DNA sequence: CTCCTTATTGATAATGATTATCATTATAAT
DNA sequence: ATTATAATGATAATCATTATCAATAAGGAG
């Protein structure tokens, strides 16, 4: 039977309230301030469980450690090629439905049945776009 | 200055002709038959380079080692939740253009500039769908 | 409240995947 | 041929994550 734990609540709560997408280690270091006895294994363990249970989302990146996202509302991600930051992109319900429908049809094309999807757009974020412009001027 | 190497050619060639999406180790083991002196570090090294140069694609999976895809034609991936197999889904030019356009617009929504994307649909592949049906009958 | 079962923890060892190091070898220009 | 250096292969090192396990904490039952 599942038991309550302060650690798990802290981890989930923290992920639900912060809007960045921290790695397990970043989250561990941050939470260690609030709960110094916290162990890093506990963080990894709970993050994996919370993913399995669908309370949070694991984001694989092409380099480095996995990131975690407490926001389970359907959304897609944008990763900046320059600064590496990952941002959320929320779609309007209509857009999301259309996209969902498209993906389901693509899967049908190979006789498969879609149940989920993972979309990451890459490119330049707003900040890095501005930086690039600055470079050209000088 | 870039120099030719038999190993790199073998690796790239192999990936271009096979349609599965092998891990670095799988590829290494297969190629070791053709070239017994091949080292696994060489495989990892060349795979990373070939990715950087855009000749192949790295596929991150939610569990286990990265997979590599010699097919750089625009396409998306389908990963079966049951058997873990990764298949290619090719879109018609029209579909692809529409999808591309949609993604570019989503990025614009956060003032970002899209230059690429990574789409993986998850669900049940054809084979595993049939297996599931078989289970229910018995 | 106290006892008891067992889920969960934290420390750390182990693992898996990948990258770094470095002496040796292969490539290509002179 | 000679030479400069890119690339290799063996292996050590690193990084991220999971497994192990004794100690602790949660939450019934009596």
> In terms of per-residue confidence, which ranges of chain A show pLDDT below 50 for 5 or more consecutive residues?
none
Global structural class of chain A: alpha+beta
Dominant shape of chain A: globular
User: Please, what is the CATH homologous superfamily of the largest domain in chain A?
Assistant: Winged helix-like DNA-binding domain superfamily/Winged helix DNA-binding domain
Largest sheet of chain A: 3 strands, mixed
Summed up, the helix count of chain A is 5
What is the helix fraction of residues of chain A, given as a range? 40-55%
Number of strand elements of chain A:
5
- How large a portion of the residues of chain A is in β-strands, by DSSP E? 15-25%
- From N to C, what is the helix and strand string of chain A? HHHEEEEHEH
Cα separation of the termini of chain A? 64 Å
* CATH class division of the largest domain in chain A: Mainly Alpha
Describe this entry's structure for a reader.
The structure is a homodimer of 138-residue chains. By secondary structure, chain A is α+β, with helices and mostly antiparallel strands. Chain A has 2 domains: 1-72, Orthogonal Bundle (Arc Repressor Mutant, subunit A); 73-138, Ferric-uptake regulator, C-terminal dimerisarion domain (Dna Ligase, domain 1, 2-Layer Sandwich), CATH 3.30.1490. Chain A has 5 helices and 5 strands, in the order H-H-H-E-E-E-E-H-E-H. The first copy, chain A, has helices at residues 6-17, 24-34, 40-52, 93-108, 126-137, and strands at residues 57-59, 67-69, 76-80, 86-89, 113-124. The first copy, chain A, has a 3-stranded mixed sheet with strand order 4-3-5. In chain A, helix 1 (6-17) crosses helix 3 and helix 2 (24-34) packs across helix 3. The longest helix of chain A has 16 residues, at 93-108. Chain A is globular, with a radius of gyration of 18 Å. Strand 5 of chain A pairs antiparallel with strand 5 of chain B.
């Amino acid at each position: 039977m599942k038991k309550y734990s302060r650690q798990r609540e802290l981890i989930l709560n923290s992920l639900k309230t912060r809007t960045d997408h921290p790695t397990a280690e970043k989250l561990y270091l941050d939470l260690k301030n609030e709960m110094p006895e916290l162990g890093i294994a506990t963080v990894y363990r709970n993050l994996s469980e919370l993913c399995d249970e669908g309370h949070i989302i694991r984001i694989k990146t092409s380099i480095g450690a996995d990131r975690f996202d407490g926001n389970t509302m359907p959304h897609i991600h944008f990763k900046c090629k320059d600064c590496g930051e990952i941002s959320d992109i929320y779609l309007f319900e209509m857009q999301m439905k259309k996209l969902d429908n498209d993906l389901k049809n693509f899967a049908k094309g190979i006789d498969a049945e879609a149940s989920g999807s993972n979309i990451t757009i890459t490119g330049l974020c707003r900040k890095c776009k501005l930086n690039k412009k600055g470079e050209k001027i000088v």
